[in-house]
Amino acid sequence: MDELVRKASATYSKNFPAETHFERAIFISWFCAKPTCKFCYMYTIKDKIKNPRQARRRLESIFAEALICRICSWEIGFLSAGIASWATSELKEVLDGLYKITGKKQWLNLGVLKERQIKELLPYIEGITGTVECVNEELRRDIVPDKPLDEIDRMFEIADKYEIKKAITIIVGLGETIEDFPRFTELVRKWKVDRINFYRLVPHEDAPFENGPETGYYIEWIAKTRIEFPKIEIIAGSWPDRTTEVPLLLEAGANAITKFPAIKMFGKKPAHEIEEGAEKAGRKFLSNMTVYPDVDIDKELGKLDFDHAMKDKIREKYLKYYKNLKKYEAK
Ligand code: SF4
């Protein structure tokens, strides 16, 4: 394993600068029209959602979070929602607001998108994500029954037509083994993906999984991927109880860290461990997880192209987040 990680680390160094950052996925709903993926939080709450429209975040909450991402130099990993939880015109409003705040197009993780949706959202799209999760077909039929790979195939053909980037998500620990790695490389090559988001399985209460993978196995997938695909962006998930893995994730060739609940954990020990982990791995950490930058929120809002009513609502929401962010930050 040491040799594999050394090789992956050398491959990373040849192709990328000695830097890393944190990426936050912005979740905009907790409703999913096909809540059948057995590892997913939406699967565990599916019977509790009576009104899908109420299982969505308000715009001001999404925009306040995006503002915090900008202030703390967190990239937005992708905009994520359960299947069919927002109409395309509504998504456009969300993406337009995110563009006003970040000045950037976004990656989308919204299930399989149709061509008309991609066309409508095109000015705001950096790339789209195929939620592969697991490449072992037999397991997929059981664990991810409603996301067949041929639908992802078709979506990526549309992405190619409109020249937008492609990403996939992989959850390590769903029952696959490293024997499935060749199938994974075959798909990555076929789709010519630009980035791969790796997560370790985190069992949710009421989901049929009890344990996540061992650190060594999670690292093995990332390191082998880095060696096989020297130039693809690799983003690796880390959780508050797993932040000691961060130096290894980076040495194995990950470009950036994601999934960590950075607002809730801002300034706490695991957030420090991420920053220290980057240093241990010899990377400059470009984001901020522990000391909140000194900003004048009214000035920041003043620069944004929203109407007064929306600015007031964002301000109110931002101040609620801010209270939590300041609670534990390093003194
Ligand atoms: S489609 Fe996405 S949101 Fe819906 S259950 Fe599966 S992983 Fe969860």
Task: Provide a descriptive summary of the structure in words.
With 331 residues, this protein is an alpha/beta fold. It has helices spanning 2-15, 41-45, 59-71, 88-102, 115-121, 137-143, 149-161, 181-191, 215-228, 246-251, 269-280, 297-302, 308-328; strands spanning 19-27, 75-80, 106-109, 125-133, 165-172, 195-200, 233-237, 256-258, 284-285. It has one domain (2-328): TIM Barrel (Alpha-Beta Barrel), CATH 3.20.20.70. It has 13 helices and nine strands. An eight-stranded parallel beta barrel has the order 1-2-3-4-5-6-7-8, surrounded by four helices. It binds iron/sulfur cluster.
Nutshell version of this structure?
The protein is an alpha/beta fold and 331 residues long. It has 13 helices and 9 strands. Strand 5, helix 8 (181-191) and strand 6 form a beta-alpha-beta unit.
Topology:
Layout: H1 2-15, E1 19-27, H2 41-45, H3 59-71, E2 75-80, H4 88-102, E3 106-109, H5 115-121, E4 125-133, H6 137-143, H7 149-161, E5 165-172, H8 181-191, E6 195-200, H9 215-228, E7 233-237, H10 246-251, E8 256-258, H11 269-280, E9 284-285, H12 297-302, H13 308-328
Helix pairs in contact: 1-9, 3-4, 3-13
The protein binds iron/sulfur cluster (SF4).
Iron/sulfur cluster binds at residues 32, 34-35, 37, 40, 42-43, 82-83, 111, 131.
